Amino acid sequence: MSDVSMDTIVSLCKRRGFIFQGSEIYGGVGSIWDYGPLGVELKRNVKAAWWKSVVHRRDDIEGLDAAILMNPSVWKASGHVDGFTDPLVDCKSCKKRFRADHLKGDSDIKKCSGCGAQINLKENPPRLFNLMLKTFLGPLEDSSSVTYLRPETAQGIFVNFMNVLNSRSRKLPFGIAQIGKSFRNEITPGNFTFRTREFEQMEIEYFVTPEDADDFYKRWVETRFNWYLELGVTKDKLQLRPHGENELAHYAKACTDIEYLFPFGWSELEGIANRGDFDLKQHAEHSGKDLTYFDQTRQQHYLPYVIEPSGGVDRATLAFLVDAYREEEVKGSKRAVLSLHKDLAPYKIAVLPLLKKNPEIVEMAKKICSSLKEDFVVKYDDTASIGKLYRRQDEIGTLYCVTIDVQSLEDKQVTIRDRDTMEQERISVDSLQKYLKEKLL
Ligand code: ATP
Fold it and tell me: What is the span of the domain harbouring residue 117?
C-alpha cells in the first residue's frame, strides 16, 4: 500500500485549491469534481506532457479534437448501445448497489462490500445497466432525437480515420491522438477522482498493417509505461497487468493495463489494446462507406489493425499527486511537499517580497515577477511571513522561491530556494532568467 492516505490528498486538494466537490454549495453531485486554480494548472500540464510526447515529438501521429455529441448510429456501430453495460446488483440487507463483477466471492455467491451479507446471484441476478448518458438533440424529446454524451473519445477518431488519412496524405503506420471529456453513468463511482461520471481521456488509435500489430502493441505498452516513469512516478508503484483470455473483449487480440499502487490498491491508469480491425469494420458496415486503406506497395485494399493506448487524464493527475506527496521533519516541525516533476508543477516560481511594507522591495519584486512571467508560470505572494510562504509553496509543488530583501536593493541579488533540497543561494537579478531557464526548460 502507498504511504499517504486518500484523506490527506483529498484535504490537501481542497485546502490548497486543486480539486473541489462539484456543486459543493448544493451538497455536491454524484462523483463529479471541479478542478480549482492549482488543479487546472496541474491537469493542463499533464495533458501538455502527453501531447508533447505523443504528437509533437513524433512524426507519425496527428492530433484531433472531435465533437462530444455524435450521430447516434456511431454508438450502435461501436457496440455501446447494446453492449456498454455493467451488471448491477442490490444488496437485500443494506440496500446498497454494486457492480457484480467488483464483488468478492465465487461466480454465484458474492459478499456485499458494504455490510458483508451474502448476495446470491442465482436468486438475485444482476441487471444489465447501460453506462451511456442520454440526451436529446433539437427541440423534440422523442426517440428520434436521442443521442449520447460520448463514453469514450476513441469513436471520434475512428469516424475521422479517412479524413485524417487523406488530408494529411498518410501511410501506415500512423496514429491519431485526442484528449477530451467522456461521460459514463458509473454505478459505483468513488475513490475521489479515480472513477467519476465526467472525466477526460487521452487516447491514441494507431493504425498498422495486420502483420505488424503485435510488434506495435508491445512497443506501445513500453512507450506508455515509460511516460509515467519519465514524469517521476515511483517505479515500484507502477506495474503492467496483461489481461487473461477470459477478460478480453470478444474483438480484442490483447490488452495490458498500466496500474498504479494508489492508497486503495493497484488500479488501472491506462489500457493498451490490440483491437484488430473491429472498429473500422463496424463503422464501414454501419455507414456503408469504404474505410479500407490502399497499400501502394502491395497494390491491395485492406482494413488496418488498431493499437489503442487509452488513458485517463484525471487518473494520471491523481497518481502524480499521490506519488509526489511527502511529509518530512524539518527542524522539529512537519513539512509537506509535493515533489512534482518540473513539467507538471502548477507554478514553477514564486516571487516573495520579504517586507511587504517596504515599497522599494515590493516594486523590485513585482518587476522581477513580471519579467519572469514571459517564460514561466510565476506567482507573486506576500500574504504571510516568509516561513509560511515557503511551506505553502512546498505544499503546492512550486519549484523555486525567489525572495527579495533589503539587501537586494543594494547588491541587486536575490535568494533562490530549491523546493526539494531547501537549499538557498544568492544570485544576481541579471542572471536570474538564465539560471531558471537552465533548471526549468
Ligand atoms: P475501469 O475498468 O476502471 O472502469 P475501463 O477499463 O472501463 O476502466 P476504458 O474504457 O479502457 O476503462 O477507458 C480508458 C481509460 O479511461 C481508463 O484507463 C481510465 O484511465 C479512464 N477512465 C475510464 N472510466 C473512467 C471513469 N469513470 N473515471 C475516470 N477515468 C476513467
Answer: 89-99+101-130
CB distance 314 to ligand 1 below 6 Å: yes
pLDDT digits (tens, 9 = 90+) for 261-318: 999 999 999 999 999 999 999 999 999 999 999 999 999 999 999 999 999 999 999 9
Residue 41 CB–ligand 1 contact under 6 Å: no
CB 314 within 8 Å of CB 196: yes
Q: pLDDT per residue over 112-147, tens digit each?
A: 988 999 999 999 999 999 999 999 999 989 888 999
Write the residue with the smallest CA distance to atom 3 of ligand 1.
268
CB 293 within 8 A of CB 281: no
Q: Is 340 in the pocket of ligand 1 (CB under 6 A)?
A: no
CATH number for the domain spanning 269: value is: 3.30.930.10
| Number of alpha carbons in the 13 Å side-chain half-sphere of residue 438 | 4
Q: How many domains does the chain divide into?
A: 3
Cα 430 to Cα 4, 403, 413, 423, 436: the distances in Å are 41, 15, 8, 20, 11
